[in-house]
């Protein structure tokens, strides 16, 4: 049995999706951000950074979204979460997980947590700089998907696509939402049509988001 410490609308969505896709037995434990529960000592004992997701399995608490996704792919090798272990495709998938975490996820943190940069609200110049950086990532991903898609690992859907879709979702209120890039929009539309996405939304009740229809 897995326990997922989650907060709606956050990176824990992608771990939730992976648990559903793997048909794993799990329970949800909500971390209430409005009460700053992510900084409670009891939660910090599980996740010293005070962030979600945390996945607990057999008494061990696991952190860091891409690392948890790789762990679940290891625990459920037949669930198709990642290409077969040991293959070049698997290595490529790992690369994408790192890419998404290091670039998009890290930049979003600066956008959503301006205090990280010593501001209560981001100054206009910084907002513009971060938006430009995000657009550069979307351009890069769009070119990759146009040439090698429809998914990040070609024909094979993987947890990297779930991660990407969750990251795209966060841009919905930004001046240039990621769905403005056609191949990205198509990928997100396919992911959002999956039963796992629908079920995750039913169980977490995040703010509604419709990336549009697949072609
Ligand atoms: N590197 C971490 C980042 C996790 C993260 O940024 N989580 C955000 C939500 S998406 C969070 O918990 N924010 C609450 C806070 O920073 O207080 C991971 O990949 O899991």
TrEMBL record:
Residues 86-215 form the GST C-terminal domain. Coiled coil: none annotated. InterPro entries: Glutathione-S-Trfase_C-like, Glutathione-S-Trfase_C_sf, Glutathione_S-Trfase, Glutathione_S-Trfase_N, GST_C, Thioredoxin-like_sf. Residues 1-80 form the GST N-terminal domain. This is Glutathione S-transferase. It comes from Undibacterium squillarum.
């Amino acid at each position: 049995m897995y326990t997922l410490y989650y907060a709606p609308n956050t990176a824990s969505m992608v771990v939730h999706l992976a648990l559903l896709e793997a048909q794993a037995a799990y329970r949800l434990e909500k971390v209430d951000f409005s009460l700053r529960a992510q900084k409670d000592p009891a939660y910090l004992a599980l996740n010293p950074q005070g962030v979600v997701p945390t996945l607990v399995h057999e008494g061990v608490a696991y952190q860091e979204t891409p690392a948890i996704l790789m762990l679940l792919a290891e625990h459920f090798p037949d669930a198709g979460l990642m290409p077969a272990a040991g293959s070049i495709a698997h290595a490529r998938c790992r690369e994408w997980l790192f890419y998404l975490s290091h670039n998009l996820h890290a930049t979003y943190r600066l956008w959503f947590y301006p205090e990280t940069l010593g501001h209560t609200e981001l100054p206009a110049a910084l907002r513009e700089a971060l938006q430009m950086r995000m657009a550069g990532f979307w351009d890069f991903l769009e070119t990759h998907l146009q040439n090698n898609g429809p998914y990040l690992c070609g024909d094979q859907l993987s947890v990297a696509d779930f991660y990407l879709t969750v990251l795209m979702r966060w841009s919905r209120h930004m001046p240039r939402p990621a769905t403005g890039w056609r191949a990205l929009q198509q990928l997100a539309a396919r992911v959002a049509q999956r039963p796992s996405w629908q079920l995750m939304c039913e169980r977490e009740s995040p703010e509604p988001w419709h990336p549009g229809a697949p072609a």
